[in-house]
Every structure is written in C-alpha cells, then in structure tokens.
Amino acid sequence: MKNVNLNALRVFSVVASHGNLQRAADELNLSRGAVSQRIKQLEIELGVVLLVRGARGVALTPEGARCHAAMQQALAILDTALLSLAESGDRVTLHLGASTAIKWLMPRMDAFAARFPTVSLTTQTHERMLSRSLGRNEIAIWPGTAPDANPAHGSLRLTDIRLVAVCSPDFLRPDWPMGLDTLLTLPLLQDSHRRWERLIEATGWGDAHKLLNFDRSALALDAAIGGYGVAIAPGYMVDHDLRSKRLVEIWLDPEPSGDGLYVSWSKDHLGQARIKRIVDWIAAEFA
User: Fold this and answer.
1) How far is CA 200 from CA 197, 215, 248, 267, in A?
2) Secondary structure (DSSP) of 103-132
3) What is the rounded distance in angstroms from the CA atom of residue 122 to the CA atom of residue 233?
4) Exposed e or buried b for every residue in 64-89, given b needs 16+ CB within 10 A?
5) SS3 at position 185
6) Domains in the chain, please, with CATH?
7) Nearest partner of 140 among 89, 93, 103, judged by Cα
C-alpha cells in the first residue's frame, strides 16, 4: 500500500463535496492555490487523475468518484468512533434541520430541561441527513419517505408531513375558506423546498416570478409572522405559532405527501435507558 498524505485526502474530500476549489478553500481556511497543489500532490502519489477542472468548477473522474466514496465511508466511521470516545453520560447530541430546531425544538426547551434536568443537550443542524452512523449518545430527527435503513440505528416515525399555508392574523386576505386558485394570487413566501413553485407549475395559477425566496423555512415563516405574505411549511413546524396566534392557517394541502418525520438513535447506547426516554419524550410531543 502506498503512503498517502492523509491531509491531502481530507482536502480532496472537501473539494469533491463542493465541486469547487474556491468554496473548498474557504471551508478549509486555505488559499485556492494551496488546495490545488495538494490535489496535484495526491494525484501524483496515487498515480491517477482525480479531478477534471472546468470553467464552472471541478468534476470527479471515475477514479476520483471511487476515492471520494471510500473517503466518505472512512471519515464517517472515524467521526462516529471519535464522538463515542468523547461522549460523557450526561451529554446528548440532537441532529436536525435548522428550521426544525428553531420552530419545533426551541419552544420546547423549557419542557425538555424540566423533564431531563441532568442532561446537557447539544444541537447540530444540517442541510442533509447524516451519512455516518450515530454515536451512542446521539439522536437524529429528519424527514424522509421511509424509516432509517441503517442497521445500527433504531428508528420511529413521528408524524406524517402535511403542508399548510399560513399568514399573520393581520394580513389582508380573502375570506376563508380559500381555494388554491385564490391562494396563489397572494404574496407568497417560499423556502428552498420550492413548494410554491411546484404548485404554480402544476396548476398554472399564480406567477413564480413574484415569489419572495428564503433559504430556510424558519425565515419564510418569520416573514409571514411579520405580515409580508403567505408561507407554506409542514404542520409540525408551525404548530407553536398557530397555538400562540402569531399565525393562522388558511389552506391545508388535501394530498398527503407520503413523507414523514422520523427519529433515529444508535442501538449501541450501552443500555442507557435515558436515550430511549428522550426518544419517547420526542415522540410524545408529536402525539
């Protein structure tokens, strides 16, 4: 086996994930030239070309794709192992989307602290589901079409995802009930899931060019609370704002999405009943 610079492998993995040298350099806090040099060094050591450079970024060669897949798997195993070594019995890490953290978890933090006073909860937000296995003191909440297929995980469906349209009680709008044809003529606030665009394309109503776009559901919902228009989001994400009367529901998607929200946890939690109690508490909050 060749002696390969592990740091160069890490640099390559970041470049491959971004498909762009400059974005990888920004993440690694290196110059673009230093990143490019380490990739060239790695290609020389391995004797293969890993990346093809183009005007819009870089693309993986077949050899680069195999190397990247192997690196992702190895780093995931290492991340899980190191995290488990560092965990203490009173620390629990919860992985979830940023908007779920803001709109679902934060309103429940006082209740969590009262129920688990000795647990130190750390949240880590992600744009995508974790590719690695969870450590023994980790829990993840993520949307999907099926339970977590990782054999190292336990998994439970928390709720069906039903989309609702919401706005401020003070927002001027036609009387309820409201059809989709009327709804799509209102000022619409859209997040990165592009749900309004898909409804406009499917029905032919409304104008996609007039949408106000945000990169997170929580930002679109906060804009709706401010009276700037109508947002669309999963029901669980707006439940607290509906109950506190900061938002009102004006439309419910009649078609079930088929998606659900799931919670996963490591089966290797060394018999710690606390992890299962936290999972049960999360499930009860969705009941």
Assistant:
1) 5, 19, 22, 43
2) IIIGGGHHHHHHH-TT-EEEEEE-SS--SS
3) 25
4) beebbeebeeeeeeeebeebbeebee
5) coil
6) 6-81 (1.10.10.10), 87-161+259-286 (3.40.190.10), 163-252 (3.40.190.10)
7) 93
CB atoms near residue 225 (< 10 Å)? 20
Q: Which residues contact 260 (CB under 8 A, 6 or more apart)?
A: 143, 144, 145, 157, 158, 159, 160, 161
Distance CA 116, CA 279 (A): 12
Residue 8 is predicted with a pLDDT of 87
**Rounded mean pLDDT for each run of 10 residues along the chain, 287 residues in total:** 76 88 88 90 89 85 88 71 56 94 97 93 89 87 92 93 95 80 93 94 88 96 97 97 96 90 83 83 95
The per-residue pLDDT for 272 is 61
The DSSP output letter for 209 is G
Report the relative pairing of strands 120-125 and 153-160 from DSSP bridges. unpaired
Q: Measure the CA–CA gap between 133 and 7, rounded to whole angstroms.
A: 23
Provide the token pair at 258: 């088929």
What pLDDT does 87 receive?
47
Length of the chain, in residues = 287
**Structure pTM?**
0.70
What secondary structure letter does DSSP report for 210? G
Closest CA to 92 of 70, 68, 123: 123
Burial (CB count within 10 angstroms: exposed 0-12, middle 13-18, buried 19+), residue 107:
middle
